[in-house]
Amino acid sequence: MAYSTAGPVVAIVPAAGRGVRLGESAPKAFVPINGVPMVRLAVEGLLAAGVVDEVVVVVPPEHVQSSAELLPEGIRILEGGPERIDSVRAGIAAAPEAGIYLVHDAARALTPPALIARIVTELRAGRAAVIPALEVADTIKSVDLLGGVTATLNRSELRAVQTPQGFDGELLRRAYASVTDGTDITDDAGLVERVGARVRAIPGDPLAFKITTPHDLTVAAALHAAQAGKTG
Ligand code: CTP
Ligand code: MG
Asked: How many domains does the chain have?
């Protein structure tokens, strides 16, 4: 199928999670890295990429009002839902005109703008679904509930996937319209795979890692401080 990608590039930023694994009192996207909330860093990265026409940020209900002060002007702010999939669905519904969607976790606050631009370049070249992915360094095994190893997976075929994940607008709308359960789906490309579209993985970037645990937050603060030192 040929994809047109006519229409604006809309970035949807799911930022409505609670951050249970991080364990801070604020929802994760509002936890600061060296004083700047993660969601603001993620949005600034998208804007700096120079390829996004509109940004829709999806936040917990109690943060809808306060987010306007945290974010640059012109950003749309919506209320999210209980699961990530619900939050992304709200973002899609608010921007049905998109020719391209980029879905980008607020928790990947240090994602380089160049990676964001590369995803859009691939979509403009005619790909329908493009995701950043890294080779895995560890050997990955599957285990049963008791920790018994059931298989050793072939590492050369495995990738750890990141965001932004980019999609032809019509394809992502169709993929979300097709969801009836969705509880086992942990990324947007997973839904697109289920409707039979081909997803292309391109090399990701270590800086696009997801800040999930207190360890990740410490690493992110150190990397962010080092970057700030370089750019003055
Ligand atoms: N997210 C969302 N709506 C939800 C759940 C998650 O918008 N109902 C967002 C998060 O804010 C985050 C991204 O999806 O930017 C990836 O999710 P994750 O890293 O799991 O964040 P949390 O759900 O906040 O963390 P945890 O699972 O530890 O509670
Ligand atoms: Mg979560």
From this structure: 1
Mean pLDDT, consecutive 10-residue stretches, the chain (232 aa), reads 76 98 98 98 98 98 96 97 96 98 98 98 97 97 98 97 98 94 83 96 98 98 93 69
Amino acid residing at 4: S
State the closest ligand 1 atom to the C-alpha of 22, by its place in the atom list counted from 1. Answer: 28
Atom of ligand 1 nearest to the CA of 106: 15
Tell me the C-alpha distance between 103 and 119, whole Å: 11
Q: Residue 141 in contact with residue 149, Cβ under 8 Å?
A: yes
Domain coverage including residue 173: 9-130+160-231
pTM: 0.96
- CA-based nearest residue to 13, from 107, 140, 98, 130: 107
